[in-house]
Specification:
The structure is a single chain. This protein is mainly alpha-helical. 83% of the residues lie in helices and 0% in strands. The mean pLDDT is 83.
Length: 66
Amino acid sequence: MDEDSKKVLSDFQNLENRFRREILHKISNTTPSKLSNDQFHSLINSARSIERDWSKLIKKFKKIVK
């Protein structure tokens, strides 16, 4: 595996860990009805940030695969 591929794979793994930490952990520690407005918006912002990073990684991955 070349260096670019290793870097993208590492980035995917880091993003997966970030998703687990920032989204799943927060959701599993509370029930939706108990989320404050700030907690809800924090989850939404984290999800949007992860989605942007995910899109960037997909583009990098497609360049490597070509």
